[in-house]
Amino acid sequence: MLLRLSLFALCTLVQSLPSKSHTVKQVDDGTIQSMAIFDAANTLLGLLTAEQNASLVYPYEAAGNATPIYFGSSTTGSIAGEQFGQSVWTNYPVGIVDRIGLARDNFTDTQEEAVLNLLRVMFSEDGYNKVQEIMNADQVEEDRGVDYEAGLGSYTLGFFGEPSLTSLWMIQFGGHHLGINMAMYGSKAVIAPLLTGCLPAINNVTNRVLAAENDIAFSLVGSLDDSLFAKANITHDVSTLTLGPGHDGEEYITEGVNVGLFTKAQQALVVDLVSEWAGLLNSVHYAPRLAEIKAGLNETYFAWSGPTTKEDNQNGKSYFRIKGPNLWVE
After folding, report:
1. Average pLDDT of span 238-254
2. Count of other CB atoms within 10 angstroms of residue 248
3. I need a labelling partner for 130 at 20 to 30 A (CA). Which of 22, 226, 249, 277 fits?
4. What's residue 6's pLDDT?
5. Phi-psi category of 318—alpha, beta or left, where left has phi over 0 and alpha has psi -120 to 50?
6. What backbone phi and psi angles, to 5 degrees, belong to 69?
7. Where does residue 126 rank: exposed (0-12), middle (13-18), buried (19+ CB within 10 A)?
8. What strands, in cross-sheet order, belong to the sheet with 67-70?
9. pTM of the full structure
């Protein structure tokens, strides 16, 4: 009661000040950013033909856990991805696992610019640049003549649910080395599950793609003393992702060292490393998630498998995992 009265008095005081002598900068709680994404999505839809619209927009279907997708339309065997409603998430090339939505090579130049504008408001500046680097590197593979569908034109955009400021909807964008799933609900947005990857790791020699996440990871593991590393080190074989596409809802034992034992500098490296994925999201929507990640550090675990050093200006080849409250990075 006292808090409400105090807030009311404060509002009254601010409103009574002369407008020419005081300016209050509005802090975005996510509403303004959500509106920008909503507007960018609708601008794109307004440029599409009816046929294109039907290929890009699908219903948002609430479901429990995602269901696995197997190679060759089988119901058993090797997992190729997973499906949630009509949306599909995978790290295999387009053509091996079909994406749901409209591929970039189906857009006109004007429509393509609207797609890029949507990505700009979805992502942080670093996130947008990383997405561009991944796609450009994939174009290098296409230019080399790989035997699978690759390149800029294969990256696919889909909406699940109509763009809305009051209802849940999702934007999915990706291709072989990129899987973006961004769910929107009012002023809130999350970006998960999320996949980033790259081949080649060095694009035309001049640009090392995914350099930051690689460098931060090796800096972190290199900062651990023998005792901490002994706890972090995974001694059994880790040959693939343990919680990748097709494994939604599965539980894994906690492995590694508790980040609560780290120094403040080491904990900051953990946050920076997680942000290489979670921080692809624009800074406004990422802010509350970042606060959650920091608040959960004492319940977060870091695990490592493989070499702990690498050559300068090269991407190293190792595996690491970060598991925390509502957090899994590997």
Report:
1. 82
2. 18
3. 249
4. 26
5. beta
6. -110, 130
7. middle
8. 67-70, 79-84, 87-89
9. 0.87
